[in-house]
Specification:
InterPro entries: Ig-like_dom, Ig-like_dom_sf, Ig-like_fold, Ig_V-set. By secondary structure, this protein is α+β, with helices and mostly antiparallel strands. It is built from four helices and 18 strands.
Length: about 280
Amino acid sequence: MKSLVSVDQTIKSAWLANTCDINVNVKIPREAEINKSVNLDCTWWLSSNNSSLYSVKWYKDEYEFYSYMPENDPDSRIKTHPVNGVNVDPKSSRMGSIRLLYLTLNSTGQYKCEVSTGAPFFATNYVKDNLTVIALPKQGPQITGLTQQYALGENVTANCTAWPSVPKAQLKWTINNKTVPYDYVVQHPTHQPIESQGTPNSIGLRFTIDNRYLKTASYLGALRIRCVALVGSRRFETEQPVMLAHANNQRFSAGDLRSRAPSAAYSLALLLLGTILTAT
C-alpha cells in the first residue's frame, strides 16, 4: 500500500511540475449578443527555454473545435472541427486568438484553451471561462394602466410588460428612484416562450397614495413611476410621471382606477400585435 501511495504522489508531482511549465491566460467576454461576433484570446508563456510549443486547442463544453500546430505545414497548421453553436472565422484567427461569427443561443457554454509543449517536457495546461449569449428585447418595457392624476387615498394600479428576451427580463418598480416595497408588487403567471424571440415577462403594481408621496413628490407634484427591465447585464427602463392632486380634486374612485388597469395578458397581446404589424 505504501508503494502505491508513493507512486501516486510521484505522478501527481510530475503532473503539477509539467503544468507549471506553461502559464495560460484567456480573454473571453462573459456576455455577447445573438448574431454578433466575438474574439476569444488565449496567450501563454513557457517557463523553460528548452520547451517548444506543440499545440494550442480550443474546446466548447469539452468538444474540440479549433487547433493550431506550428510544426505542421502552413496549410494545415490551423484546423477547425464542427461543434454546435461555434462558427470560427479562419481569416481572423491566428495561433491562440480566434473569432466566432454569427453567435446563436447554442454558442453559450464553457470555453477552454489548452496549450501543450513537445519534447522533452510534454507539458499541458489549460484555462476555462464561460460565455453567455443573450437576445435583447426589441424595445424597453411598457407601462399600462396609469392615469394622469391621483389624489390622497386613491389606489394606483398598473402593469409593466417586457418584450421577449433571452434570458427573460427581470422586472422591478421604482417610485422617485426608490425600489417599491415587496407588497406593492403583483406577481403575474409565467409567460410561455415565443419561438425565435425569447420569453416575455410582466408584473403589476398596486399601492395607495398617502401623505408620504404628497411630501416627497418631485417637480410639480409628480410621482416618477418607473419600470426597470434587466436582461443579463443590460438595463432597460420606462418612466411615467403622474400628478398628485388634493382630495377635493379627485376624479376617479379606487374602483374606477382598478377597472382602467388592463390585464397582463392584454398588455402582452398589444406587444405581440405590434411585432406582427412591424414585421408586415
